[in-house]
Each structure stands twice: as structure tokens, then as C-alpha cells.
Amino acid sequence: GDSVTQMEGPVTLSEEAFLTINCTYTATGYPSLFWYVQYPGEGLQLLLKATKADDKGSNKGFEATYRKETTSFHLEKGSVQVSDSAVYFCALILSGNTPLVFGKGTRLSVIA
Amino acid sequence: EAGVVQSPRYKIIEKKQPVAFWCNPISGHNTLYWYRQNLGQGPELLIRYENEEAVDDSQLPKDRFSAERLKGVDSTLKIQPAELGDSAVYLCASSLQETQYFGPGTRLLVL
Questions:
Q1: B20, B107, B2, B97: which is closest to B65 by C-alpha?
Q2: B81 has which bridge partners?
Q3: Do B91 and A100 touch (CB under 8 A)?
Q4: Cα A5 to chain center, whole Å?
Q5: A85, B5, B33, B36: most buried, per Cβ within 10 A?
Q6: pLDDT given at position B97
């Protein structure tokens, strides 16, 4: 079946460090890919998305590029802030309004 | 534009008791989802509605869980009776096309 695999956390970084969270997927078709972020005690917020190969999603300094050849959608940020501390979820959707398939999430802690 | 609204935010009950969660989706969103998120895991779908019709409830434990979406707007998810293993965060999401928007969730603790 369709699945998403994320690097295990927790990830702890100092402020202004470079962030990479790896995400790979397995899908029977051509999915759209998403990163959601969950701050403590809150629901999931859409961070960015990409709908086809080579698309780059970006938001709030975060970026991820849809790589069909490596079935990956790694999340990157050049300089993290304490306020970026949260759990990050990679997810895919095959079409339209079908359910999202999530990875297990990666907890990021940024220390000053 | 208002986001997805859920209530209550927190609920503590004893096992075997009933519990209900309510969701109001973003206005105009025809598709509504209920997900369950266990501790340290990603959300998993329980049920999906297109307007008032449940089009995917294959993962809903129908012996104790039920859901409804009257008039194709608000939705209620019910558990009766609750078990210890039902402790989780219950998330509601809605979408118009592909992108899903989530509410803050209801954190359920069954004692």
C-alpha cells in the first residue's frame, strides 16, 4: 500500500542551524506531497505542498522539492528559529479528496 | 475566513462511558474527514464524508464508533462505550479540492 517514511526524531538544533528532515514515499500512482506542522497542543497546519515532479513548495523559509526519481520530498530550512520547534509530518494524497497518508512525524527542538 | 472548529478541546472519561466530538468545517467545504492520532504517530483516517454521504468508513470500528453529518455541514463522531485504547487526539479536517485543513483536535483520555 501507499506509505510515507520520515526520519526518526527527535532532532535538536541550535538556532540558525540548517535543517533537513528526510521524507520518502511509496505510492501506486502519482501523488501530491505535503508537509504539515503541529505545534504543541494544536492541530496540523499546512506548511507547503507540491503536486507534480520537480515542483518546489515553499513557505516561511521552508522548502521541499518533489523528486520522482528518488521518491523523496525532503524538508529544508536554511536557518531555524526557536519558534520552529514542533512536530513535522510528511504526507501524500493520491487524488482529489482521498485521505492523506501520513508519516510518523519528526519532532524538532530548536535551542537558543 | 474561519477555520475548522472542533469541540470540546479536551475530554476525560471513564471507560465504558459514551463520548461525542463535534466538528464545524470551513464554509463551502464539501469533504469532511475524521482522523485519529495516537501518541507519537501520524493521523489515520476514520471516516470521510462527501456532503452528507459517508464514502469511506472502512477504518471506523463500527461496533463502538458512529458518525453523522446532517445536512452536509457539521459532523459528530461518537464512541460508545469508550475503551482505554481509544485515548488519542481526534482530528477533523475539511477540503474543497485537494488540500485538507485541520481543526485543533479533541484530546481524549479514557481512564
A1: B20
A2: none
A3: no
A4: 10
A5: B33
A6: 83
